[in-house]
Amino acid sequence: MKLSKLNRLTHRWGSIIALLPITIIIASGIILQLKKASPYIQPPTQRGGGTEPAIGFDRILEVTRSVPEAEVKSWEDIDRLDVRPGKGMVKVRCKNRYEVQIDTTTGEILQVAFRRSDLIESIHDGTYFNDHFKLWVFLPAGIVLAMLVITGLYLFLLPSIARRKRARKQRSDTTMHQPIPRK
Predict the structure, then answer these.
(1) Rounded to two decimals, what is the model's pTM?
(2) Distance (Å, rounded) from C-alpha 23 to C-alpha 159?
(3) Domain of residue 55, CATH code
């Protein structure tokens, strides 16, 4: 089988096999590009009063417990804390995907909002489905996508490579058939 035919076959079947996972990756990636611009995807970061945290972890937990949407009873219900000293606030990301932003100087609640960006990121990298799906579908789809780039580049350049070969052959043919000048 010629390389060009094998290349076309690989390109065609590779694109069909990887179509769905790559479409999911592209669509979720486009949405993630907009996360800072859309409060629907990720709540905007608020500013607190100071630049040095003045409240402790106990106060952060107490304030977060007072937010019904957060459904926090203990530290077990909190996924992570994102402390922004320069903005004078801490983001408390709850396991139910709510985010509570608290002023680190006063302990005042600056904002409570649902955070969709983490869900979209888990869809984007395949962990939303499960770790096996990520490794056995999304990883191979990424490898196939890399192969599609290589085979597509080859298919794109193939006509110009063929033209150069033809031109080179024609030049060599015309120089072979010309009589040698005598002195």
Answers:
(1) 0.69
(2) 29
(3) 3.10.450
